[in-house]
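User: Could you check the structure of this?
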Amino acid sequence: MNQDSGVALQSLKVDGGMVTNELLMQFQADMLNVPVIRPKVTETTALGAAYAAGLAVGFWPDLESLRRNWTVDKTWLPDMPQEERQTKYGEWKKAVEKTFGWVEQQ
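Assistant: Sure, the predicted structure tokens are below.
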């Protein structure tokens, strides 16, 4: 992602059902080597639709008023040594490679 965008990831804001999995969030922080931040409202798809509707009808005066509603629930900080991170990433890449061609086209 860093390479494709040309922008270094400073943190990862997460949402959705999986953010309740504490182990997964810590693993994300460890593997990405950046803080992972979970908001108090974790189901933001519906919230975004409500915000868009509120902006459209003038309930919310501007985007800044919406930004003030966003608050942090929890942050996970990277805690994995670089060598272990590199080893696990290498193992993941190897596992992905093993899936190539596992389904034969007919």
